[in-house]
Amino acid sequence: MKKRKKTLYGIPVNENLIGDYDWSEEEYKTGKFFKWYLARVLSNGTAKDLKNIDFKIIKKYLKELNIPRRIARFWFHYFDIKEEYKYGNIEQLAKKNN
Question: For the whole prediction, is pTM greater than 0.90?
Fold first, then answer.
């Protein structure tokens, strides 16, 4: 069995989730890759991918991730924290401009 490469937090990388992008192995240990990969796992990963991630890490980075709103809402609800997004709540901004 092929040994999986790991991210910043030692999380095994599922190559199937990153195949459409060209990341070097050195980049796997960067914060930029980690946030991108975490968003990929939350959006497209399996339960097996998710079980490799400590939920404290998900909670720590949740507000910074570029993930679909419905997925973000699930996790904000799961952690019982207020929905806040790095770039603001786009839906509320759209209502203000109408």
Answer: no
Confidence band, pLDDT 50/70/90 cuts, at residue 23: confident
Inside any domain, residue 81: yes
The answer as to whether 22 is a domain residue is: no
Other residues' Cβ atoms within 10 Å of the Cβ of residue 55 = 11
Instruction: Give yes or no for a contact between 48 and 4, defined as CB atoms under 8 angstroms apart.
Output: no
The number of folded domains in the chain is: 1
Residue 90, domain extent? 38-96
